[in-house]
Design goal:
Elements (H helix, E strand, L loop, with lengths): L1 H11 L60 E2 L9 E9 L2 E11 L7 E7 L7 E4 L5 E2 L5 E2 L8 E4 L5 E8 L6 E8 L17 E5 L7 E10 L10 E11 L3 E4 L2 E6 L7 E5 L35 E8 L5 E7 L22 E7 L6 E9 L30 E4 L5 E7 L28 E7 L10 E2 L9 E8 L5 E7 L10 E7 L7 E4 L23 E5 L2 E8 L7 E4 L8
């Protein structure tokens, strides 16, 4: 049964599987991407990549790594060549010296855990460990650990409590869920979610042999407005629905919240709204059959084919949620499979408002279309996912949303509108990641701003100022209480040939009108062999937190050859 159900997970691509090559193994062969009715959805599965070996060979261990000179600080404190990636960081609203970070952590082998690190001295020193994962329990009576708990998010409440959320899923069966962990000692220890009692269980799919539902890509925020819902924890996530675990139906954005410090959770349900102008394409007409079925959708033009949701709370407690949607059929561009654009499925960025008292949804409102369709990027022979030239890791265009002290909203993302079009499917080289011929990617970071609660948005502004045919990706935005806007992203201008990668930060002190860029990594990364000897996976996002006139960018870094670790920098204007 294990082989059967593990194969189902591979077929529907709920999680990406990376087989770790042995030393000296030949580069993997290019793989064919199957033609499916909804091809772009297959590039939306998140979670972590399974590393199939439980033990690390003795030769892979190394002594404690010394800190690099300057401001860069190694956050994870493990002593082996196992990856850390996908970073989230938060700063205590009452103490800017107190930082908590979350990340995917492969140090133990299997199960893959959620790593955390805590600093009480502004990031100079760190205490770290692994979040204790919950046992997965099914209605059939199966009890097992998750294969992994990825997509970490961390946040503080005004009372000093710290929260960490993640997904958790089985590689053998179909049960999966969204989980929350609380720390009452500042991020040194965390309570364990318990599926049987519901503690810390945000939402859960309990069926071992029905793979029709996968709960994915959660993110969290805490209301720190000081209003009637101060301390409330919000989690948004994607609920993928399949028929029989294979045929795609929908992926609406769901909302859940807790008013008792993550002990118990209420699932509000779908919050992505509907729009005849923005969501005219409708894949789901029946809602499926089986335990996960929703029945025929009674909402016309439901905006329910989504991924990458991120919530923030305004000063009056209003919840704003950002997500990617692929249903704006009239705006799809590119050749697609048949030259007409019918299978291009370019995404758009949408934002909704959610009333914290009634949970009524206003919107969605469009921020921008995004150039991220199947002909906007080449594909990786290592994982079958979209990537950049001189790459191989999976790539998405999704950024995130930030809110300022006057409730101004900022959305950042990265796409390849300034790069070349690629015939589908074009693969990068398995030997060095290069693109064929003269084709080049030129991904850039963009930002858009709203001053009316997300109803209207400014035209996209390019933040990154690198030369043409250089790539930027994985942006994250944070807005300080002084209104300064900070964006972290990857950039490859320093190498001169668009190969090595650095972390950069852009700062605007005037509400996004002008920007100054800083290189924050002091040594470039070669990601091509960073993930157990392959470039397959470097996470899906970076993180940044801001307090006063300081920012704390937090990124995945491969300066230690053959290993990805997570680093922060303490950035102040007038510094480097």
């Amino acid at each position: 049964m294990k082989t059967k159900w593990f194969s189902i997970f591979l077929v529907i691509a709920i999680m990406a599987i990376a087989i770790v090559p042995s030393a000296g193994a030949a580069p993997p062969q290019q793989i064919e991407i199957p033609v499916k009715p909804k091809p772009n959805v297959m590039h939306w599965r998140s979670g972590i990549v399974e590393e199939p070996l439980f033990f690390t060979p003795q030769g892979d261990f190394r002594p404690a790594a010394s800190q690099s000179p300057g401001h860069n600080i190694l956050v994870n404190q493990d002593f082996n060549f196992r990856a850390q990636n996908e970073t989230s960081i938060a700063v205590n609203p009452n103490n800017p010296q107190h930082l908590v970070a979350g990340y995917n952590d492969y140090r133990a082998g299997w199960p893959i855990g959620g790593g955390f690190s805590t600093s009480f001295d502004g990031g100079k020193t760190w205490h770290d460990g692994l979040i204790t994962f919950p046992a997965l329990i099914t209605v059939e009576g199966i009890v097992e650990p998750p294969v992994g708990t990825g997509d970490p998010a961390v946040a503080f409440a005004n009372d000093g409590a710290v929260y960490h959320t993640s997904i958790g899923f089985s590689a053998t069966w179909c049960e999966n869920g969204i989980f929350a962990y609380r720390s009452d000692d500042g991020g040194l220890s965390w309570f364990r979610p318990v599926v049987a009692t519901g503690r810390g269980t945000v939402d859960y799919w309990p069926y071992a042999t029905d793979c029709s539902v996968f709960l994915d890509k959660e993110f969290m925020t805490v209301d720190t407005s000081g209003g009637p819902h101060d301390g409330r924890i919000y989690v948004t996530y994607t609920r993928f629905l399949f028929e029989g675990g294979a045929a795609y139906y929908e992926s609406p954005i769901y909302l859940a919240y807790s008013d008792d410090k993550a002990e118990s959770w209420t699932v509000v349900g779908e919050i992505n709204g509907a729009s005849a102008d923005l969501c005219e394409y409708q894949e789901d007409v029946t809602g499926g059959t089986g335990p996960g079925a929703t029945g025929p959708d009674a909402t016309s033009y439901d905006c329910d084919e989504n991924q990458f949701s991120y919530p923030v709370v305004g000063s009056d407690g209003t919840l704003y949620v950002h997500f990617f949607n692929e249903q704006n059929e009239s705006e799809w561009t590119g050749g697609g499979f048949d030259g007409s654009g019918a299978f291009e499925f370019d995404n758009q960025i949408l934002v909704v408002q959610v009333d914290p008292d009634t949970f009524a949804v206003t919107g969605p409102y469009q921020v921008s279309m995004v150039a991220d369709g199947l002909t906007n990027y080449p594909f990786s022979p290592f994982n079958g996912r979209q990537t950049v030239c001189n790459g191989g890791w999976r790539l998405n265009a999704a950024g995130t949303i930030g809110v300022g002290p006057s409730d101004e909203l900022y959305v950042v993302w990265a796409d390849n509108r300034n790069g070349d079009e690629f015939a589908y499917p074009t693969f990068v080289s398995a030997s060095d990641g290069s693109c064929p011929g003269t084709e080049r990617t030129s991904t850039d970071v963009f930002i858009s701003k709203s001053t009316d609660g997300g109803v209207t948005w400014s035209a996209p502004m390019r933040i990154s100022k690198d030369p043409a045919d250089f790539d930027n990706w994985f942006p994250w935005v944070a807005v300080g209480d002084n209104g300064w806007v900070w964006v972290v992203y990857y950039d490859r201008r320093v190498s001169g040939n668009n190969t090595l990668t650095d972390a950069w930060v852009a700062l605007s002190k005037n509400g996004g009108q002008t920007w100054k860029e800083y290189r924050v990594s002091e040594k470039s990364s070669n990601f091509f062999n960073g993930f157990f000897g392959t470039p397959s996976f470097i996470g899906d996002y970076n993180g940044i937190a801001a307090a006063g006139n300081k920012a704390y960018p937090f990124w995945t870094d491969s300066r230690m050859d053959g290993d990805t670790d997570v680093f922060i920098d303490v950035l102040q204007p007038g510094g480097k």
